[in-house]
Amino acid sequence: FKGGDTCEYLLSSGRFLGEKVWQPHSCMMHKYKNSEAKNCLIDKHIVFIGDSRIRQLFYSFIKLINPQVKEEGNKHGNIPFEDKSASIKVDFLWYPEVNGSMRQCIKSWTEGSVAKPHIIVAGAATWSIKIHNGSNEALTQYKINITSIAPLLEKLAKSSDVYWVLQDPVCEDMLSESRKMITNEKIDAYNEAAVRILNSSSRNSKAKVKVFSVSKLIAQETIMKSADGLHLPESSRDTNAMILMNVYCNKIMKPIDGSCCQPQPPLTLIQKLAFCFFTLSVIGYLIINLIHRNNFRKNKSCTDLESGEEKKPAISSPNVSTLEMLLHSFCKLGLIMTYFYLCDRANLFMKENKFYTHSSFFIPIVYILVLGVFYTENTKETKVLNREQTDEWKGWMQLVILIYHISGASTFLPVYMHIRVLVAAYLFQTGYGHFSYFWLKGDFGVYRVCQVLFRLNFLVVVLCIVMDRPYQFYYFVPLVTVWFMIIYATLAIWPQIVQKKANGNCLWHFGVVLKLICLLTCIYFLSYSQGAFEKIFSFWPLSKCFELNGNVYEWWFRWKLDRYVVFHGMLFAFIYLALQKHQMISEGKGDPLFSNRVSNVLLFISIVSFLTYSIWASSCKNKTECNELHPSVSVVQILAFILIRNIPGYVRSVYSSFFAWFGKISLELFICQYHIWLAADTKGILVLIPGYPMFNVLVSTFIFVCVAHEISQITNDLAQIVVPKDNSTLLKRLLCIAGFFSGLLLFSAMQDQSRH
């Protein structure tokens, strides 16, 4: 941690990712759209003052406001620009030399009668070198002139944002004969003079002229693509303009993926209360631990001198051990949440933008798949989608999704479409798993529901509090939670039909089919009735859970994207369990699922279907159109994979313990990645070790996986305490939880009111 202002890094350092993507040192740059630029600069007056290079920057800057602007007008004269819709004025003032004329112009803004510009961008030197043929006298005069201008700029910096643009290097071989005297050696001398003189009288003051030196680094990489060796190519000056926009607008617009120049957000009331709670938990655990240690020392086994018998140590009461376990869990959780906060809310660790390349995605994929094969073991049972197999499935899918996120592969449509199938497969397992449980066990009790809801939502609720994020932000957990409740409601409402009842009368199977048809009808209706869907989830307090940015559109989009796959999972479970019950499939060790002929035909169809879907997904040209088809066709590849994985007896009898281990903590991995592996709420990458990308990924991944594993254990421990089997105790806990969420809603409303 080097400390300092990220604005300084943005203005002075960075590197290229690929050919065109600029990565500032330690922070993330937001790509501003026209509407965002207008909202930021509304009622603002910006002035660019200098030579032809500043004029280039001026045009790139105003194109961020209005892309239709053409580079017309007098090249050696002033150029005005105005956007009346947002009351934005941007002027270019032609002052190619740092001289008395430029000084007079700047001085006029320091006088009370003239309105000061909100942003001033100035810079010049190459004309002085050219006109005076690179003489030393010209450099001396430049130093004198900039010395006279510096106090004026420093005075303006108290009320305006003032930037001095250092001179970019030139490509000397490409310069025309009339510009041959402009050498990089001369440019460096002029830049050195400007840096030394500017802010010399206000070094300890917060109001300083900001030196825009990053343009030099960009030019060093791209000046050889220049048309004349002097002026930057368009892509480079566009990057400079975007940097300028980030420097000024990030603190106003606060974009999630623009961490440069953003101050640390203040702690909310709920965050402060959470901090107090975790602190008290740590203190409480330490006190109980000390008491237990003292008691242990006092009651330590020793020989009684009179009787010669060994004394037994006192046994601690179960209540104390439960309390200790509770405080111990919250103590660990508090330390972990501190790490979360430091990684993604405090400006402590660096963040960088993602940059996709095929190698950054496919090489790690191949590596983990090969690694997974090395950890092949025999399964305990050989049923279709047995526990080890589903854990393995979740594990490798989660690892692929993690690589997809950190590599920024969402920009590559074929990969995006295949990842959509993996997310759908998770939901398919939700439908399959919960339907199978309720159908076989017939357990519709409150304890089961509370256990599932607690395990799904505990971490997300804690993160909503600590990271100050809405519940819908972690979209996958609301998705599986709502689908679990839909599955429960479908099977629990009268008549409750389970396998035991259906075995007595085959007509009950038609009852289940009827329930599934009703569910499909409801899904179909809601998917094509956005208004009805939004009305349901816009009621308070549901709206507090499912709103994002003031509406539930994002929730509707996420739900609609995989709307049929949970139903497909339930239907598959129903058909599979019926076939299993009537002994129409063979699940013995090493046996094919069906007869050899049927197995071979189904296997062939599955492989063809799997490859056909992949070819279709890889040929996608339009994300919107492909997303429309995805809910209906994703099940094809999912079913094809299940059959390929389960029809051959040997394949069904083995699993990868490596993938299964990750599968057991897949939910925690999916949620934790938001803040301690990725950064800026998944928009960027967390940088713990700058300058060493591979080593950084190794270290951050190790910590990330350990934290996810620890949180999984904490959740399991707390689930046993918070959700007891005894109904009367459970009812009391539910009342406490209801009180907790009521308080949370109250504090949230207070926060919203104070923000507005």
TrEMBL record:
One of its GO terms (biological process) is carbohydrate metabolic process. Its EC number is 2.3.1.45. InterPro entries: Cas1_AcylTrans_dom, NXPE4_C. The chain crosses the membrane at residues 269-291, 355-375, 395-416, 446-466, 473-495, 507-526, 561-579, 599-617, 659-680, 692-711, 731-750. It catalyses: CMP-N-acetyl-beta-neuraminate + acetyl-CoA = CMP-N-acetyl-9-O-acetyl-beta-neuraminate + CoA; a ganglioside GD3 (d18:1(4E)) + acetyl-CoA = a ganglioside Ac-O-7-GD3(d18:1(4E)) + CoA; CMP-N-acetyl-beta-neuraminate + acetyl-CoA = CMP-N-acetyl-7-O-acetyl-beta-neuraminate + CoA. GO terms for cellular component: Golgi membrane. It is a multi-pass membrane protein. Keywords: Acyltransferase, Glycoprotein, Golgi apparatus, Membrane, Transferase, Transmembrane, Transmembrane helix. It is found in: Golgi apparatus membrane. Residues 253-734 form the Cas1p 10 TM acyl transferase domain. GO terms for molecular function: N-acetylneuraminate 9-O-acetyltransferase activity. Pfam families: Cas1_AcylT, NXPE4_C. Residues 22-91 form the NXPE C-terminal domain. Belongs to the PC-esterase family. CASD1 subfamily. This is N-acetylneuraminate (7)9-O-acetyltransferase.
